[in-house]
Write a structure and sequence with these properties.
By secondary structure, the protein is of the alpha/beta class. The chain has helices at about 15-25, 40-50, 60-65, 75-90, 105-110, 155-170, 180-205, 215-220, 230-240, 240-260, 265-280, 285, and strands spanning about 10, 35, 55, 70, 95-100, 120, 120-125, 125-130, 145-150, 170-175, 295.
Length: about 300
């Protein structure tokens, strides 16, 4: 296999995350062509104008024919719909490496059956409440985790190539099983978004309009409620069971905290708050590898 930087990488869908990866590879002096396909010519034209890609086409097969690595950058449900066609073309055209960036993995792996050995399921834990290729940030993945969820039949060379690509983009790469990924991300990313939506909805209907009087706490708690509604609809639908389990756990903890407030149990509240502060501070380096005010997760 030739050096990864000399390969042709093709992005299927060009938005915030895929555009950021294209920009990161460009900044890392990727030597091979960076090409793209998508359903909307405007996004592709914008990505080309920004220097993120070398060329694009609205014809999927013409892009697949030229690709050594295919990166599916579509929202979750669009990824599930696109993946079977992509893998069929991959089998017909020199077996390129294929990977995705969807926030859920069980549904993606199911859509990949019969399994294509050079498909490497992946998920970058980085993002923003902004969307579209115009919002691409080339250093978005610096110090951020990318989780790969290979199956036993995943080709080792393909897995190494996808890992190397992400490491060139500045990410730290880890591996989880498909089920562990979906459960962990439901708790760490998906439910925080659900909470942000719930809080924002409550405040939007409040007669005193408290959003007008918010400070840093409200800013931080509601920022991700400005994320792409369609993408988060897809995530909630495709990781439903794990999200409901995590939401139930949060509801139980909230009920316990409510009881402490109702009972005016100051010592117990302080102990809980101190524990939470310790947990948060212990993970500060992971959660803030590079401070960026507009950063979010997916």
């Amino acid at each position: 296999m030739r050096p990864i930087q000399d390969m042709t990488v093709a992005f299927l869908g060009l938005g915030l995350i895929s555009g950021s990866l294209a920009g990161a590879l460009r900044a890392a002096e990727w030597c091979g062509p960076i090409i793209a396909w998508g359903p909307r010519e405007r996004s592709l034209e914008r990505g080309h104008a920004l220097g993120l890609i070398d060329r694009f086409s609205l014809d999927l097969e013409s892009v697949m024919v030229d690709a050594d690595i295919v990166v599916i950058g579509a929202p979750p449900i669009a990824t599930l719909e696109l993946l079977p066609e992509v893998l069929e073309m991959a089998r017909a055209h020199d077996d390129p490496i294929v990977t995705d960036m969807a926030s859920i993995k069980a549904s993606v792996v199911e859509a990949a059956m019969p399994y294509y050995a050079k498909f490497v399921p992946g998920h970058p834990i980085a993002g923003s409440e902004h969307s579209g290729v115009e919002a691409a940030i080339p250093d978005l993945f610096q110090g951020r985790e990318v989780i790969l969820t290979p199956l036993p039949e995943t080709d080792a060379t393909a897995l190494s190539a996808v890992q190397a690509m992400w490491e060139l983009a500045g990410a730290r790469v880890t591996q989880l099983s498909v089920s562990d990924h979906d459960a962990a991300l439901a708790a760490s990313s998906h439910v925080p978004h659900m909470l942000a939506y719930a809080l924002t909805a409550v405040l939007s209907d409040h007669p005193l309009r408290p959003m007008k009087h918010g400070g840093g706490a409200l800013r931080d708690m509601t920022r991700i409620a400005a994320s792409d509604p369609g993408m988060w609809r897809d995530i909630a639908l495709t990781n439903q069971d794990a999200i409901l389990t995590a939401m139930d756990a949060v509801a139980a903890q909230h009920a316990q905290l409510r009881a402490l407030v109702a009972e005016a149990d100051g010592p117990a509240m302080e102990a809980l708050f101190a524990h939470c502060r310790e947990v948060r501070r212990k993970h500060d380096v992971i959660l803030n590898p590079l401070l960026r005010p507009d950063e979010g997760e997916s």
